Amino acid sequence: MNDTEQERKGNRLSKIVTRTGDAGTTGLGDGSRTTKDSLRIDAIGEVDELNSGLGVLLCEDMPEAMRAALLDVQNDLFDLGGELCLPGMAVMKDAQVARLEAQAEAFNADLPMLKEFILAPPRSPT
Q1: What is the fold, at CATH topology level, of the domain defined by 37-106?
Q2: Higher-confidence position of 72 and 119
Q3: I need a labelling partner for 86 at 20 to 30 A (CA). Which of 35, 45, 103, 110 fits?
Q4: What pTM value is reported for the model?
């Protein structure tokens, strides 16, 4: 394998299971532990899932302004995930929120007034 191929592959993880969470806890970025059912871990999962969905969406054709905005959101979500995994860390800035709000207003400016909002029906547990 040449250097270019190695660079493309990056570092490979050969072991994902650590067995350190067998007591119902998981490690955070600072080495502390929290329960796997904590709100922090739930929030980390939600942020990761949203970021994954944006990644799939970014595979589609779209206006360049929308693509740039979504790439910014993805970067912000990485910052948020980092903040969530490091208790006491503050990475997110007011400017990031202000930028997102301004982008939302710009994208919505030409849309007609919203007359109704349809909520999906609740799902029953399976």
Answers
A1: Hypothetical Protein Ta1238; Chain: A; (1.20.1200)
A2: 72
A3: 103
A4: 0.73
